[in-house]
Structures are given as C-alpha cells and as structure tokens.
Specification:
Oligomer: single chain
Number of strands: 19
Largest sheet: 8 strands, antiparallel
Shape: globular
Structural class: alpha+beta
Number of helices: 14
Length: 619
C-alpha cells in the first residue's frame, strides 16, 4: 500500500546570516528549508492517494498499521499547515495540493484509504478512547491554521465528508488528561465551519483542563488524585497551543474574563518555560513522548503569536532556532524521516507503546512560528539573547507551584531542574514502572545535557536516586511524592515512601532537601530505614565514550563521565567510612555510547532507625 522508493536526501540549508541572527545564524529561510525537507522526505513513504504516511521504523504502535498511517498524515500536516499559512499562497512544493489530495482520498466513500477504517481489525481492539481522536485534532488544528489556503478551497463534497468525520471524533469522550483538548479543538473547528456535532462537550472539557492549573503558567496533566503531579513538556506541545487555538476559534463567544485569564497564564508559561532551554538549544530531558522533540517550541510560539510573551520577538526566535538547530545538527530528520528517538536514530527504551512510526512528526507543531508571515516581528527583528544566556537574569529561579528549582550554569551552559514536584504517580503508589515512564518522572534531577538511564540503569535504582538496598542487592524505588516545599530561590524539599517489589517498604521514609549553590546541589536526606537495609545514593548518570577509568579522587568522592561531561558525587556528612564507586552501563540512554553513574554506599548495614546523609552533586 505504501510507496517506499527514493533514497534519503540530505538536508540542504541556506548560508548563515550572522547579522540578523547573531546567535544561531538561522533565518526564516532555514526554517522553510527544514519544513520542506521533512515533508518532501515523507512522500516516498505514503499511500497512492496520500491519505496515509508510514515512515520506516522497527515497530508499529499498539494501535496497528492503519491507525499509524493516519497518524503519519495528521502529524506531518501540523508542519505543512504552518508552512502553508505563513507562505500566504506561495507554495512551490505544492504542500497544499498534496495534503488536499490526501484529505480527499481519506474520505472517499468506500475508498481503499478511507480513514473510517483507520483501525487494524487484525489486532485486538485498544481499550479506552481510540488513537484517531488525537489525529483528528491534528487535522482540525492544521485546517484552522491554513483555512484560507486549504479548507476553503476543498471540493464541497470533500468538505462535507471530512466535516462529518471530524464531527464524529469531536463527539467522542477522551481520556481525562490533555486528551480532552483533542476533542475540544476538533469540536471548535467544526463549530467555526458550521459543522454540527452530535454531542458537544468542549466547553466543559476545556473548563476541566483549566481547573488543573497549578501556577507559574503550568497545568497538571490530569487530576492530581489519578495522575499524581504530572508536569512535563505536554504543557508546551498540547495544552498551551491547543488552548490558544481553542480561544482563537471561539473568538467573542469565549467569555472575556476566561480569555484574559488564559492570556495571563500563557504569558507566565512562556516566561518560566523559556528558562528550561540551554544556550546550545538543548531542551530539558524530562517526561514521556520525548520523540516529539521540537514540539517543545509550540508554547513559546503561541505566546508570541498571541502577543503576550515576556520575551522579545527576537528572543523567541533565537530560542526556537537554537532548539531546531540543536536537533538538525545532530541528524534528527536531516538524512531521513524523524525516528523514534532523541537525535538521529531510534531509541526504543524511551518510547511509549502508543507511539508509532509517524508519532515523531508531532514535532511539526513546533513550527507554529512559520504560520506568521515573513514581515512579522518574529522574523524581522534581530535575534536577542534567551533567558539562559542573559547576565541580567538570575542563575537560579524557583517555580514554587511546581516544586522545582531551575539552575543555569553560566560556566558550562547546562540547565538543570531539581525535581521535588513531579512524579506522574498516583498518590500512595510506587513510581511509574511502565515502558518509558519511570526514568523520566521519578528522578530528583533532570538536565538539558544528560538523559536518565533506561533498562538496567533504571531497574538498578542508582541513577539520581537515594535507595535502600537489602542483602540481595534489591534497591527501593521512589514512591509518589508525599509533599513538597520551596523556600526562596535555592531550597526545595519533598518526602516519599520507598517501594520494593511494587509495595511500600514498612518503616521506611525518605525526606530530601536540596540546596543550590553556584554549580552544585547539596542534598540532605533524612532516612528512616528498617533493620538490614543499606543506604546507597547515586549521582547524575552521564553518557560516556571513554574506554578506561582513571582512579577515583581522594576524599571518598565518586565521579563518572569523560572529557565531555563529568558527574561528581561527594560525601559531606553521615557517610563516614562510605565506599565510592562508579557503575558502568551500556547504551542505556539515547545519547549514544555507554553510560556511568557515581554512587556512594553507606558503611555497614544499619540496625534500623533514623540517619542523616548529606552529599554534594555537580555536573
């Protein structure tokens, strides 16, 4: 069914312009070149009528082949719609015509590519709301963005059939998290186009999502009682851009006070979220669905397009171009379709079961800025520094409603988050252990230049974690955050109950306080441990290419890494007689090569009771 001809073409970029873009050298022409390269690179992997796109991958999603083909079309349409809208009718690569043909084939009555059959009947049905809800929203979002150049020019019969397909998905009930915005945006587009929806519920769903607001511009991804504290990039690649589009589609029909409140929250988000990008463009490695990569840019673009961003237009573009260049320079989408990974190739341990070959093209919503015309200030004003490279912004900032401290190293260009506020774990339960979940939520710290360890590194429980270890070397995991506090700009604390084998360890409790100083973090652990359990603490896991390990430094400290990055863990108090070592691993991160983590082992086995262990962490 799918065309697979054509050798990969390497990305060709125009010359850098260091006058208008002194930080990245990138102009609008670079963005257009990347968008065209991504979209043209998918055409050899499409069905004859263009309604399905299935780039090469070593596995399908749990939803099956037909659903994955719809996913590839819908998600790549996010980039195409921004490209079409911003070009204002100029379309040398015929993106509008190509996607219009795909939409027509998708709703052809009884057609072989009809989306009405976008479920694989050879597989057991997926429990709960079906994946096409998401893809319908991407189609609706893209049609709203490019309406004048695509939707308005479709054949009337195609519009009617496509509208009916969208209306059906708008009427469905989605999962009780960010998915509520998928049906909401589809319903809002249908309403704006005069398409009736049988069971409208967008108003209530949007109001429910907005009830999950925490502060600092951030929303929890679902109810706290069922999702725990679920804070991640979904704020930028779904919640904020979708709310932005929803209010845009509703126009004057949305209550003025709610729209004003949302604009304030969007502005706050752009301000706090922009602190999470390093000067070299690397975003924070935290949370699930990280194969979406440049979708992290959708929130900052939305704030700029709405005119509420605290960043100057040139600073927004500098941040966005830095991140897009970070990924393209490392091969993501440069010589072939975007893979299920972080930089160039696949790295399936970090990928969730719902992700298929076309999933990475949610990255296209990160091209939202291209929907602005070439004469918009986002593209005409010179680049300005982003927050992580400005000397007039503090190196450390607290996000107290999130339970986070954000620190930028002026010396090394690393941004790190001290995490006392997100776990994506139901209160009272163990840290998530599902595919690709535990490592990206349960750690005490995340950075822009390291990845948590997957596979064996996660099951060992040493990476960025204080564990209790029994005589059989079974390590406890971090349970749900029991409570947290943030004081000033440099102190945060939380507590959890350690779990072992999926159950809480009786008599065990760990309270951890973090104190930031310069480029270091001091962690103070108050540990209640039952008899026979040893305390072990791990530092930040780092990818490494070094073949030989030099001797450990004096003073009982441990370190890991090579000439690129070095993770240091040193005892300060409560570690008398402790043993320091480095645990080596294979390819347990998507950053390539091997990996290592420094650890400290407390001397002997406690007889039970309470102890305090203080250490310093540095990268």
């Amino acid at each position: 069914m799918y065309r697979t001809s054509g050798a990969p073409i390497e990305l060709q970029l125009p010359p850098e312009d260091r006058e208008s873009a002194p930080f990245t050298g990138w102009t609008r022409a670079h963005w257009e070149a990347v968008a065209d390269h991504w979209l043209l690179g998918l055409r050899p992997h499409t069905s004859p009528g263009h309604a399905a796109v299935l780039p090469p991958a070593s596995r399908l999603s749990v939803s099956g082949r037909r659903s994955d083909g719809l996913e590839g079309f819908a998600r790549s349409f996010l980039a195409a719609s921004a490209r079409i809208a911003g070009a204002r009718g100029a379309d040398p690569e015929n993106h509008a015509e190509w996607y219009a043909a795909g939409l027509a084939a998708a709703v052809e009555p009884g057609g072989p590519e009809a989306w009405a059959h976008a479920a694989d009947t050879r597989r057991a049905p997926v429990e709960g709301p079906a994946q096409p809800i998401v893809e319908a929203s991407a189609v609706a979002f893209g049609l709203a963005l490019s309406r004048e150049w695509l939707w308005d020019r479709l054949d009337e019969g195609v519009r009617q059939r496509l509208g009916a397909w969208l209306a059906h998905h708008a009427s469905l009930q989605a999962w009780d998290n960010n998915w509520l915005l998928f049906t909401a945006i589809t319903e809002a587009f249908c309403d704006s186009a005069g398409i009736p929806v049988a069971r409208p519920h967008a108003e209530a769903d949007v109001e429910r999502v907005e009830s999950w607001y925490l502060g600092d511009g951030w929303y929890n991804d679902g109810p706290l009682e069922t999702q725990g504290r679920a804070l991640d990039h979904y704020n930028s690649w779904v919640i904020h851009p979708y709310l932005w589009m929803w209010y845009r589609l509703r126009g004057d029909r949305a209550p003025a006070d709610r729209r004003a409140r949302y604009r304030e929250r969007l502005a706050a988000f752009a301000g706090s979220y922009s602190r999470l990008f390093a000067p070299d463009g690397s975003p924070l490695f935290l949370g699930r669905s990280l194969a979406y990569r440049t979708a992290v840019l959708a929130g900052p673009w939305a704030a700029a397009l709405e005119g509420v961003s605290p960043l100057a237009p040139g600073a927004t573009r500098r941040l966005a171009s830095g991140t897009m260049r970070y990924f393209t320079d490392r091969g993501a989408g440069s010589t072939g379709p975007l893979a299920l990974g972080w930089t160039t190739g696949e790295y399936l341990p970090m990928v969730q079961g719902y992700s298929g070959p076309g999933s990475p093209y949610w990255a296209g919503i990160g091209m939202l800025g291209l929907s602005a015309p070439a004469d918009h200030p986002l593209w005409t004003e010179p680049e300005q520094p982003q927050p992580s490279e400005r000397n007039d912004t503090p190196a450390t900032v607290a996000l107290p409603d999130l339970g986070w401290l954000v620190a930028t190293s002026r010396r090394h260009g690393v941004v790190r988050v001290v995490n006392h506020g997100t776990d994506h774990t139901r209160p009272g339960a163990a840290a998530p252990t599902g595919e690709g979940y535990g490592p990206v939520y349960a750690r005490l710290g995340y950075t822009t230049h390291t990845s948590p360890g997957f596979g064996q590194a996660w099951s060992d429980g040493a990476d960025g974690h204080l564990a209790l270890v029994d005589a059989w070397e079974r390590a406890t995991t971090r349970g749900a955050i029991g409570g947290f506090a943030v004081r000033g700009e440099d102190v945060a604390a939380s507590w959890h109950q350690p779990f072992i084998g999926g159950r809480a360890l009786p008599g065990a409790r760990v309270v951890t306080a973090s104190v930031l100083h310069a480029d270091a973090e001091v962690r103070c652990h108050l540990v209640d441990a039952p008899e026979g359990w040893t305390v072990r603490e791990g530092g930040t896991l780092v990818a490494t290419e070094a073949a030989e390990k030099p001797s450990l430094p004096a003073g009982g400290a441990a370190w890991a890494g090579d000439d690129r990055w070095r993770s240091v863990l040193a005892p300060l108090a409560g570690w008398s007689g402790a043993r320091a070592e480095t645990l080596p691993y294979g390819a347990v991160t998507p950053l390539g090569g091997g990996a290592e983590v420094p650890v400290l082992w407390a001397a002997g086995r406690p007889e039970g009771g309470r102890g305090v262990h203080v250490s310093v962490h540095a990268l």
